[in-house]
Design brief:
- The structure is a single chain.
- By secondary structure, the chain is mainly α.
- Helices cover 88% and strands 0% of the residues.
- The protein has five helices and no strands.
- The chain is elongated, with a radius of gyration of 17 Å.
- The relative contact order is 0.19.
- The model has no long low-confidence stretch (mean pLDDT 98).
Length: 150
């Protein structure tokens, strides 16, 4: 029977791995796929996605993993678990909250059919992609740290 410590670590591994996968999908093919649709359609898709994700189970996993990571770091101690919790927390809360979310909110105000749509999408895509790449790496490293701690 797994201990409570192992269960918490497994939740942190699974959660950080799932969120890393979501972000990796955006980095590796989703944003490029949106680009192929053209700016008006890409903006519409991203606006819709940003509205839907906030009310999805992804948010429960996103923030539940912050909690699981903190609990794992406290229960397990050690550099890998603590580093993993810090990396995941910074990526999930700070990078997302200060980088991606403000860009999402600005994109929500863009008229996909307006004259500024192409420029707005290009700027969004570049800046959002940079922040997403950073947090993706952080989430992967966090997943590895939690797994190492098992």
């Amino acid at each position: 029977m797994p201990s409570l410590q192992q269960i918490v670590l497994l939740l942190a591994v699974a959660g950080s791995g799932l969120i890393a996968g979501v972000c990796f999908a955006f980095a590796s093919f989703l944003m490029r796929s949106f680009d192929r649709l053209g700016a008006p359609a890409a903006i519409r898709v991203m606006q819709s996605l940003n509205a839907v994700i906030l009310r999805s189970t992804t948010m429960a996993v996103w923030f539940g993993t912050v909690i699981a990571g903190i609990v794992a770091a406290i229960m397990v101690g050690g550099v890998p678990a603590i580093a993993a919790a810090v990396l995941y927390g910074i990526g999930a809360v700070l990078i997302t909250g200060r980088g991606n979310v403000p860009l999402n909110e600005a994109l929500d105000a863009v008229d996909p059919d307006g004259p500024e749509a192409a420029e707005a999408w290009a700027d969004y895509r570049r800046r959002w992609g940079r922040w997403n790449a950073i947090r993706t790496v952080m989430f992967v490293l966090a997943c590895m740290g939690f797994a190492w701690s098992l």
